[in-house]
């Protein structure tokens, strides 16, 4: 039983790691674009926002089990196989991107709008504001979004395993359910619970540290506000 648990745990970690990596890599730009093209945003564009928002909503609402089946030809085209951990990564990534992109958009929306206005008043361009204001200020929320995405992908990987994707889901279904190995089933469930708990604890720890660091280094925020309020006064005196 131990070799089976070890090998399938590695398969699960493989699926979750790579799907998280690509989901974050693609989801952050998508979430930024959603935020920037929304109503009243710096790059407001109703057509882009609605088109991208529709794709994200469709992706989030698609049942994952059906998504795996629908994507079989595409998965085989991309990675050469449609089963196993490698084959499961493709549908996991496609399911995670819209989920994570919405979380990124929500995190950026929570950034103090006064900071953005102050940066604009000081001559900051769109991408300067994104990389110097929005992303740094939203970093704790973004880490929390990554944590939520990883936990969701652990659950998705179990579903993928039950339909040939490998990992702990495949172990629980093949041996625990079909062969009535109750002990193995319970062990697998406990391992998944432990894995999710560790991810959540680690994510919460990082968020708390980033939040405390942001609180200690809040003076630039005050400086930006001060610059915004003093600039009109200086212009009046010069006149």
General description of the model:
The protein is an all-alpha fold and 239 residues long. The protein is built from eleven helices and no strands. The termini are far apart.
How is the quaternary structure best described?
single chain
The run of helices and strands is HHHHHHHHHHH
Strand tally is 0
Shape: globular
Largest sheet: none
List keywords for this structure.
about 240 residues, mainly alpha, 11 helices, about 85% helix, globular
How do you describe this structure in short?
With 239 residues, this protein is an all-alpha fold. It has helices at 2-36, 46-61, 64-70, 72-79, 84-109, 113-121, 126-137, 139-165, 167-177, 182-216, 219-238. The radius of gyration is 22 Å and the shape is globular.
Set out the fold topology:
Elements: H1 2-36, H2 46-61, H3 64-70, H4 72-79, H5 84-109, H6 113-121, H7 126-137, H8 139-165, H9 167-177, H10 182-216, H11 219-238
Helix pairs in contact: 1-2, 1-5, 1-8, 1-9, 2-5, 4-5, 5-8, 6-7, 6-11, 8-9, 8-10, 9-10
């Amino acid at each position: 039983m131990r070799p089976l648990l070890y090998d399938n745990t590695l398969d699960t970690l493989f699926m979750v790691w790579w799907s998280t990596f690509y989901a974050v890599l693609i989801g952050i730009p998508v979430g930024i674009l959603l935020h920037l093209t929304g109503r009243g945003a710096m790059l407001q564009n109703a057509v882009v926002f609605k088109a991208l928002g529709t794709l994200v909503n469709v992706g989030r609402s698609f049942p994952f089990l059906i998504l795996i089946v629908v994507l079989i030809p595409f998965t085989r085209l991309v990675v050469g196989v449609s089963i196993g951990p490698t084959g499961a990564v493709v549908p996991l990534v496609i399911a995670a991107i819209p989920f994570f992109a919405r979380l990124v958009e929500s995190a950026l929306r929570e950034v103090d709008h006064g900071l953005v206005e102050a940066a604009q008043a000081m001559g900051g361009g769109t991408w300067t504001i994104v990389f110097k204001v929005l992303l740094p200020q939203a970093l704790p929320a973004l880490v929390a979004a990554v944590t939520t995405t990883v936990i969701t992908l652990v659950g998705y990987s179990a579903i993928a395993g039950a339909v040939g994707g490998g990992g702990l889901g495949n172990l629980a279904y093949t041996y625990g359910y079909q062969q009535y190995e109750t002990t193995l089933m319970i062990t697998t469930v406990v391992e998944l619970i432990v894995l999710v708990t560790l991810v959540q604890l680690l994510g919460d720890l990082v968020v708390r540290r980033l939040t405390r660091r942001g609180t200690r280094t809040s003076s630039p925020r005050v400086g930006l506000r001060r610059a915004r309020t003093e600039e009109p006064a200086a212009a009046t005196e010069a006149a």
